Automatic annotation (TrEMBL):
<keyword id="KW-0472">Membrane</keyword>
<dbReference type="GO" id="GO:0005886">
    <property type="term" value="C:plasma membrane"/>
</dbReference>
<dbReference type="InterPro" id="IPR051502">
    <property type="entry name" value="RLP_Defense_Trigger"/>
</dbReference>
<keyword id="KW-0433">Leucine-rich repeat</keyword>
<protein>
    <recommendedName>
        <fullName>Leucine-rich repeat-containing N-terminal plant-type domain-containing protein</fullName>
    </recommendedName>
</protein>
<dbReference type="InterPro" id="IPR001611">
    <property type="entry name" value="Leu-rich_rpt"/>
</dbReference>
<keyword id="KW-0677">Repeat</keyword>
<keyword id="KW-0732">Signal</keyword>
<keyword id="KW-1133">Transmembrane helix</keyword>
<dbReference type="InterPro" id="IPR032675">
    <property type="entry name" value="LRR_dom_sf"/>
</dbReference>
<comment type="similarity">
    <text>Belongs to the RLP family.</text>
</comment>
<feature type="signal peptide">
    <location>
        <begin position="1"/>
        <end position="23"/>
    </location>
</feature>
<keyword id="KW-0812">Transmembrane</keyword>
<keyword id="KW-1003">Cell membrane</keyword>
<dbReference type="Pfam" id="PF00560">
    <property type="entry name" value="LRR_1"/>
</dbReference>
<dbReference type="GO" id="GO:0012505">
    <property type="term" value="C:endomembrane system"/>
</dbReference>
């Protein structure tokens, strides 16, 4: 009798093990990816209630997208996540999109291992509470097209390795506490000047210092937005800025730039908005004749040498907003 019960118990245990194996075989989520998601789940507070079960792909976890059993996307914006971004994230080797935006409770530094996400094309961490240095390994994300780290508490320099992101279209590091010079390439060291396919440099409201390097700009660039407002930049506007014929919006306001405005700016005929206010510019007002798309121009709070009304103003047919206003100029008949 005892022997019969023992045999039955063994058979029961084997059935349980077989069922567990069968469940694992039927699960469509890669086991390694599942382990990583479980690690993130343990690290974070306020994960979605659907983050339960052992198959995030087939029994979908909110914010998780998969392809052929692999996790390719995590989109968890504005759900009050709290915690840190674990270095285990590197285990999601097929991850293409990581969007954790507007979760103020996500704090701490970005892990160095984030650079191992070789398939990542979109990284959006805007409006979180991340701090510390931006890891240099971010320059290893060779597929990255969209990088948005704005509205955090990052400090230190822009990693020169960002210049290696040859597919990058959007760079937004605004509203942090970043400092130091704008990095440009030197020898084998990369820099921002190498990002010739990037459409947006959003670097405003930081603590960048030093001059805007002349080497930063070239005719190969395809920039549309150059936003450098509210930093601690000094020196002159480089004449090479006029080489970037694709520019539509330039913000250099609220720095400590000085000297005269380079005449090369007038070649930027696609420019619609130009902000030069609150600097230390001197000399005559720049001649912007030919900038026919310009509709917003702010040159206020500088020390230009002439208050005479420039005749070329009347040629700017698209201009709707001007600072200082026309009342500040002396008209010459």
């Amino acid at each position: 009798m005892v022997q019969t019960r023992t045999v039955q118990l063994i058979i029961f245990c084997l059935l349980i093990i077989s069922m567990q194996v069968l469940i694992q075989l039927e699960a469509s989520t890669d086991s390694g990816d599942y382990v990583v998601l479980e690690s993130l789940k343990e690290e974070w507070e306020n994960v979605p209630p659907t983050w339960d079960g052992s198959d995030p792909c087939d029994d979908p976890w909110e914010g998780i997208d998969c392809n052929n059993s692999r996790v390719i996307s995590i989109k968890l914006s504005s759900i009050n996540l709290k915690g840190e971004l674990s270095g285990d994230i590197e285990g999601l080797s097929e991850l293409q999109i990581l969007d954790l935006s507007y979760n103020k409770g996500l704090t701490g530094s970005l892990p160095q291992s984030i650079g191992n996400l070789k398939s990542l094309s979109i990284l959006i961490l805007v409006g979180c509470g991340f701090s510390g240095l931006i890891p240099n390994t971010i320059g290893s994300l060779s597929q990255l097209e969209f990088l948005s780290l704005n509205l955090n508490n990052f400090i230190g320099p822009i990693p020169a390795s960002v210049g290696n992101l040859s597919k990058l279209r959007w760079l937004d590091l605004a509203d942090n506490k970043l400092s130091g010079p704008l990095p440009i390439s030197r020898g084998s060291t990369p820099g921002l000047d190498m990002l010739v396919h990037t459409k947006h440099f959003h670097l405003g409201r930081n603590q960048f210092s030093g001059e805007i390097p002349d080497q930063l700009f070239s005719s190969n660039m395809t920039l549309k937005h150059l936003l450098l407002e509210q930093n601690q930049l000094t020196g002159k506007i480089p004449s090479s800025l006029g080489l970037v014929q694709t520019l539509e919006v330039v913000r250099l306001d609220r720095n400590s730039l000085d000297g005269t405005i380079p005449s090369t700016l007038k070649s930027l005929t696609l420019m619609s908005e130009l902000f030069l206010s609150n600097n230390k510019f001197t000399g005559p007002l720049p001649n912007l004749a030919g900038m026919n798309a310009l509709n917003y121009l702010d040159m206020s709070n500088n020390t230009f040498s002439s208050a005479d009304f420039p005749q070329w103003f009347s040629s700017l047919q698209s201009l709707t907003t001007l600072y200082p206003s026309l009342s500040c100029f002396r008209f010459i008949s």
